[in-house]
């Protein structure tokens, strides 16, 4: 039995509220169980120096957790003068995951920055950030299309992510914190709406896993991502 009482293949409740902030070109509040992330997308008419003059666009991301997103207060990273390694790794993951679903030629020479701020954490914050980040990106690119700033849709496909792991000897979908902290194997799966893999992060933490178990986790992830993509489509329709 999972601590939450869910079936092994059951997601936590998912909700996506769009237009959550006033000023950003795209924004949403995504809730996956007790993990809540605010995602905003900002359009700028500039690109990083390494692609300037190429005609290609760029999508990047920043990630952070509020001090009381967890049980105890975390010091703001700005107060220490630098980002932690975990933060840098997660925001790079979000950025490259979202770029995998973008036609950078169609976007044109402009940059969209997706900011993901974790308001409350209960496991799966990077997956919620990618899933909500795509919604914010979709809303921002819709504005470019409606204003005829661009003529072709730069979003090739949905991008969403979900965690899976082996908890109490069973493959389970969408780990919450109690499961994540005790899972023998834990993985994050980033996929397109069409089911293609973008990134898979899997590691054994106190237990090894077999090829068959890995395949079971991928099957669970595909089902979870399909559910998330349906929620994304509903949110932006």
Automatic annotation (TrEMBL):
Residues 10-140, 159-223 form the Exoribonuclease phosphorolytic domain. One of its GO terms (biological process) is tRNA processing. Keywords: Nucleotidyltransferase, RNA-binding, rRNA processing, Transferase, tRNA processing, tRNA-binding. PROSITE patterns: RIBONUCLEASE_PH (PS01277). It comes from the Bacteria. GO terms for molecular function: 3'-5'-RNA exonuclease activity; tRNA binding; tRNA nucleotidyltransferase activity. Phosphate binds at residues 86, 124-126. It is an enzyme of class 2 (transferase). Its EC number is 2.7.7.56. Pfam families: RNase_PH, RNase_PH_C. It catalyses: tRNA(n+1) + phosphate = tRNA(n) + a ribonucleoside 5'-diphosphate. Belongs to the RNase PH family. Phosphorolytic 3'-5' exoribonuclease that plays an important role in tRNA 3'-end maturation. Removes nucleotide residues following the 3'-CCA terminus of tRNAs; can also add nucleotides to the ends of RNA molecules by using nucleoside diphosphates as substrates, but this may not be physiologically important. Probably plays a role in initiation of 16S rRNA degradation (leading to ribosome degradation) during starvation. Homohexameric ring arranged as a trimer of dimers. This is Ribonuclease PH. The lineage of its organism: Bacteria, Pseudomonadati, Pseudomonadota, Alphaproteobacteria, Rhodobacterales.
